[in-house]
Design goal:
By secondary structure, this protein is mainly alpha-helical. It has 11 helices and 3 strands.
Length: 455
């Protein structure tokens, strides 16, 4: 692709030859069998797969869809124990190839006469020769991340840019400066930068490098060097005009891609809503269970013959309460962020398809103008030649990035659901062992009492 770094070109070539481009972000080392292959018959989200009813109360979604993890991907020789199966899933390891490490941490509040905002520390460590040093430390606010995302979309319109967390308050959180909200955003920003760092093309983008290394005043100066307001307005007008015209002959492979995105968006949004509701119900259950144990302690004070039994029940409830809290923590840190990230990815994918269509629509309009002699033939011919090259580059970039994204998505979602399954197994085993131990103690107590009576 024109303008790519040499190393990027090599890695993009690997993608086009079927290599897939490696794993995803630093926090999600990918691996395992894919959800869906390139053929239509094995696509994850066909209409008959993940068959969710419109009624969001249908919580049978998880039991209905056994294909969320393609069981054919496991070796037939693998042990049948769920824990053994989970532990033997192997993920690709690309740590030896990684030469750019980014950490987002240390959120800090800033109060000015105009506004209050949060900045995050970004530490970058690298062995790349194009960097002036091996380590950098800068502070960035959310607006800076938005600027970077916009520049990446501008330079690479048909590459799949990782999504940023929403600008506004996340559902269920009241305060924008709430500690939980800030931490959730910090993790999402960390993943955003590491997704870019692991991308075969975006990682060599000059604006990305400046974002990681420039001091605040340098970044501010660099931002002012971008296109002027009139230029941006002109680009917007042309884009709107192209989108209004539409695309007459979208290639079949992009039609299939668009259909996949629509189905994927529908299903992942529904799974996100159900997951959020399950988490809320789990929290309500936890809050009530915390009050359940102390009631048995109070009760035992008035039942002399049941003291040991009631205190034993209270102890079991307390242990199960702690196990539930741990499981909720795993759900909120492992599953929910991954599902919600792919909700945002589905929106990004729709934007990518729209930008691809806009480029093709611009070409179609020039071809139509030449056909009906609506301008200078020589000038139109020259513009058509340039646009044909632009469309080809855009199509090739999207096709290569699409396969890379699908592989990452499959790895991330599979890993999240297997982790959740493992956590659930551990949770129920722990609770079961707690209550079995209590029942055994009660049985032994009765045996002792019977023996004493006989004596």
């Amino acid at each position: 692709m024109e303008g790519e770094h040499p190393a990027s070109q090599a890695r993009s070539s690997d993608l086009r030859s079927g290599g897939g481009g490696g794993g995803g972000g630093a926090e999600s080392p990918g691996g395992g069998a894919p959800f869906a292959g390139s053929s239509g018959s094995s696509t994850l989200l066909q209409a008959d797969v993940l068959d969710l009813e419109e009624d969001e109360d249908d919580l049978e979604v998880f039991s209905k869809d056994a294909s969320l993890m393609d069981m054919n991907s496991f070796s037939p020789m693998m042990p049948t124990s769920p824990l053994s199966m989970i532990n033997q899933i192997k993920f690709e390891d690309e740590t030896d190839l990684k030469d750019l490490f980014i950490t987002v941490d240390a959120p800090e509040s800033h109060v000015t006469t105009i506004e209050t905002f949060i900045t995050y520390r970004i530490i970058t460590k690298t062995s790349r020769g194009e960097f002036d040093s091996s380590e950098f430390e800068v502070r960035r606010r959310y607006q800076d991340f938005l600027w970077l995302k916009g520049k990446l979309e501008e330079v690479h319109p048909t590459l799949i840019i990782p999504p940023l967390p929403e600008k506004f308050i996340v559902k269920g959180m009241v305060d924008r400066f709430n500690d939980d909200f800030i931490e959730t955003r910090r993790k999402a920003l960390h993943k955003f930068l590491n997704r870019i760092a692991d991308h075969p093309t975006l990682t060599f983008n000059e604006d990305f490098k400046i974002f990681l290394t420039a001091q605040a005043w340098e970044l501010s100066s660099h931002k002012k060097q971008g296109p002027g307001l009139l230029s941006r307005m002109g680009q917007t007008v042309r884009a709107v005009a192209s989108s209004m015209r539409g695309v007459k002959n979208r290639p079949e492979e992009f039609m299939e891609m668009n259909n996949f995105i629509e189905i994927f968006s529908q299903k992942i949004n529904l799974i996100d809503k159900i997951s959020q509701r399950i988490y809320k119900e789990e929290r309500d259950y936890f809050d009530e269970m915390k009050e359940y144990g102390p009631i048995h302690i109070l009760w035992s004070a008035s039942e002399e013959d049941l003291v040991d039994t009631l205190r034993g029940v209270a102890s079991c409830i307390d242990k199960c309460c702690k196990a539930t809290e741990k499981r909720m923590s795993g759900l909120s840190e492992v599953l929910l962020p991954v599902v919600h990230e792919y909700v945002l990815y589905s929106e990004m994918l729709m934007g990518v398809m729209k930008r691809r269509d806009q480029i093709q629509a611009e070409l179609d309009s020039k071809v139509e103008a030449l056909t009906y002699k609506k301008g200078d033939p020589d000038l139109l011919t020259e513009e058509i030649g340039k646009l044909e090259d632009k469309v080809e580059c855009a199509n090739n970039a999207l096709k290569a990035d699409w396969e890379r994204w699908k592989l990452n998505m499959q790895n991330d979602i599979k890993s999240a659901f297997t982790d959740m399954a493992e956590e659930n197994i551990h949770y129920y085993e722990q609770c079961l062992a707690t209550w079995e131990s209590f029942l055994t103690s009660q049985t032994d107590l009765h045996l002792e009492e019977d023996s004493e009576d006989k004596l």
